[in-house]
C-alpha cells in the first residue's frame, strides 16, 4: 500500500495517529510534516532496524549508520540522540508454536528469552503485533510480564486490511515525536487489541 493509503486507512479506523517505521529507512522531518498537513493527521517518524538480536523500533534517530545491526552500537546511537528503543515482535526467533504445545518446552523458551540481554537495552517490548498469531502474541505478553517491562502494540501493517488491528493507548496526549519519546520512556501507555475492543490481561 502507499503511505497515503496507510494514513487514510488509519484515519478511517479511528486512530489518533501513526508511526511510520520502515525497515532501515528513515522519513525526513519535511516529508512527515507534508504528510501530516496533507492528511490533517498525526504522523510520527521512526524506523525498524534489523539487528543481530532481532528487529527494533527506534524513535529519535534520523539516519541509518553502518554498525546499527549490532545492538550495542544501535543502543549507543539511540542514547546519544536521547531516543527510545522498543523490541519488535519479540516472539520471533524465540518461540516455536509446535514444540510449545508442551508446557515444559514453552517454559524453556520463555526462560531463555527472559534471559536475553537484548531486551534490557530496550525501553519496552511490542507485546501485541497485528500480524502475529494469538499464541505468538501471548508469548510476548508473558515475556513482558516476566521481564516487568512496558509493552506496546503495533499493527505492523503491510496491507490496508491490516491497519488498526492493535494499537498503543497513551495516558497523555501525544502530538509530536518529542511527546512520543517522553511517554515511551515514562511508560505511560498500554497495548490494546482493537479487534477485542479491550486491553489484554
Features:
33% helix, TIM Barrel, two-stranded parallel sheet, globular, 201 residues, 6 helices, single chain, alpha/beta
- Kindly report the CATH topology: TIM Barrel
Instruction: Specify the helix fraction band.
Output: 25-40%
Q: How is the main sheet built?
A: 5 strands, mixed
- Give the CATH superfamily: Metal-dependent hydrolases
Kindly estimate the percentage of residues that lie in beta strands according to DSSP.
Answer: 15-25%
Rg (C-alpha, Å): 16 Å
What is the averaged pLDDT score?
A: 95
**What is the name of the CATH architecture?**
Alpha-Beta Barrel
Regions with little confidence, pLDDT below 50 for 5+ residues: none
| Continuous helix count | 6
Give the overall shape.
globular
Q: Which CATH first-tier class would you pick? A: Alpha Beta
Along the chain, the helix and strand elements come as: HEHEEEHEHEHEEHE
Counted beta strands: 9
* Oligomer category: single chain
How many distinct folded domains? 1
Distance separating the two termini: 32 Å
Quick structural overview:
By secondary structure, the chain is α/β, with parallel strands linked by helices.
Describe what you observe in this structure.
- By secondary structure, the chain is α/β, with parallel strands linked by helices.
- It has one domain: TIM Barrel.
- The protein is 33% helix and 21% strand.
- The chain is built from six helices and nine strands; from the N terminus they run αβαβββαβαβαββαβ.
- The strands form three sheets. It has a five-stranded mixed beta sheet. A two-stranded parallel ribbon has the order 1-2.
- Helix 4 links the parallel strand 5 and strand 6 (124-129).
- Helix 4 crosses helix 5 (134-147).
- The longest helix is centred in the last third of the chain and has 14 residues, at 134-147.
- It is globular.
- The model has no long low-confidence stretch (mean pLDDT 95).
